[in-house]
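Now for our specimen.

. . .
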Amino acid sequence: MQPMLVDLLIALQVFVVAFIALHDWVPLGALNDVAAVQAADSRTKLVAVTELSTLPFAFGLGATVVHAGERFPGWLNWYLWLSYGAALYGLVRAWWGPYLLYKAPVRAARYQAMFSRTHAFLPMRNGIRPNTLHVILHLTIIAIVADLIVLRLSQTA
């Protein structure tokens, strides 16, 4: 294992876990709109979604930390690939597909209600404008997948 790549993987995973756990609860100025998100869903639903979304990534982070000084066991490699592969699929399905390829009016209306007052630098398309905080999360997930690819290639070399 290349220690620098593992350290990067851990740092990126820390960001993902913190983002998922906190972005609907902790105000971050123009980057999020906690009041709008909490108005869109009940507190019970937000708690459940936060817990269920955070746990798989927190487990992967914890397992990565435990095995950081050694070659990752096969199950951990699979777990990380499946969880971040699913996250990548989810962000394409939830954000980038409707933004770039097709209209999703119900999703667009929901996103406008929750994110219209947050900072965004991309133009509106199909009624959706990915906000800056979500773009940072998406780039982080892409960086994790890239890191996993490089780690995998370094193990076979």
